[in-house]
Design goal:
alpha+beta; Alpha-Beta Plaits
Length: 367
């Protein structure tokens, strides 16, 4: 049965967890679980009050999505003020939450949310201090003209499992935003025909700022929402460049692999073969290198056993390059095994690669 298609949508993602949760559990498991249950009840109620949806909970962490950036940030501020009040009422048993907020494209399956937008929110959470809130550039840009939110720029941050740097901002609590914590009706991030042109442009700019430094998949999410948008041409150009860069890296790695092997292919020393395997454990010649290492380590025999060893080396060499389109690799095989088991096949393959036009003509004449 074909799997159901994943739903995609643009959302503001809030990720929260408890600072030092493992330490608290180690000190007193029962008390920590009791406090966490009470705090979670407060957090869940505030998420619903601010029109959010709880997507996932695991241990001390909470993941929620909002259709509005304003609702998401206002909810986070309300949560931190509620936690501060609870800590003040019981200062001997504090429990401080860290919150990260991002806006981006998410995938939805069975009520849970996935994708790079969720991962960035989780990494921003890890950058936040206990009792603090850290947001992405997309969230900051959406709110930078609102005087009731004050941000501190933390600059570009390199975070785990995210290929590109993430621009982070700390929301400075206790300052201007304390004046108004009431949820504000803001333009939703989801498609709405009633949105004004200004709102549409704001949403497009928010999405672009969140993906413009990303890879092909992130740029594709922008193009999916805005195929004829302001930045569509730039998104396509960057996507093509990213793919070409990836292909160039793969070709460079293949060239280094071939050059390394060419330098040591006649060696009789185990050290050089091991050096090749350390640098290129999955290289074109890795199987052959391992066979040679094993052959060198085995006791020397004569007759049929020695012949079997030679055949194993040849087979390993052939398996390492039989699917290649690089004539140099086939030449390397023929240099080593001019009368080998696969020599006829290797020469035919080499002739096909070097004279494709002639080969096609011959095939047509034969038919």
């Amino acid at each position: 049965m074909e799997a159901p298609e994943l739903e995609r949508r643009l959302a503001a993602i809030v990720a929260a967890d408890v600072e030092g949760y493992s330490r608290l559990m180690h000190r007193d498991e029962e008390t920590t679980m009791s406090i966490l249950s009470v705090r979670r009840a407060t957090i869940d109620a505030l998420i619903l009050e601010h029109r959010g949806r709880i997507a996932n909970t695991a241990g001390d962490s909470v993941l929620a999505e909002f259709a509005s950036v304003v609702d998401a940030v206002s909810c986070a501020v309300a949560i931190q003020h509620a936690m501060e009040t609870a800590d003040a009422a019981d200062p001997d048993l504090p429990m401080r939450f860290r919150i990260g907020i991002n806006v981006g494209d998410v995938m939805v399956k069975d009520g849970d949310i996935f994708g790079d937008g969720v991962n960035v929110a989780a990494r921003l959470e890890s950058l936040a201090e206990g009792g603090g809130i850290c947001v992405s550039r997309g969230v900051h840009d959406h709110l930078r003209h609102r005087q009731n939110f004050v941000f501190e720029d933390l600059g570009e941050q390199l975070v785990k499992n995210i290929a590109h740097p993430v621009r982070a901002y700390r929301l400075r609590l206790g300052e201007a935003q304390a004046e108004d914590l009431t949820p504000v009706e803001a333009p939703p991030l989801l498609d709405d025909p009633a949105l004004s042109l200004h709102d549409e442009l704001t949403l497009e700019l928010t999405l672009w700022n969140s993906v413009k430094e990303g890879g092909p998949d992130e740029l594709a999410s922008y193009l999916e929402h805005y195929p004829d948008g302001t930045f569509a041409s730039l998104a396509r150009t960057r996507s093509i460049a990213a793919n070409e860069s990836s292909a160039s890296v793969d070709q460079a790695a293949a060239d280094l692999d071939a050059a390394f092997w060419d330098a040591i292919k006649e060696t009789q020393t185990d050290e050089e073969l091991q050096a090749y395997l350390e640098q290129h454990p999955d290289g074109h010649f890795a199987s052959l290198a391992r066979a040679r290492v094993a052959e060198a380590a085995a006791p020397v025999h004569h007759g049929a056993e020695q012949s079997a060893s030679d055949q194993a080396v040849e087979l390993a060499f052939w398996e390492s390059m039989r699917e290649t389109d690089n004539p140099a690799l086939i030449d390397a095989y023929l240099d080593k095994f001019p009368n080998g088991e696969f020599a006829v096949l290797a020469r035919a393959r080499l002739e096909q690669l070097r004279s494709p036009a002639d080969g096609n003509t011959s095939e047509k004449e034969a038919s």
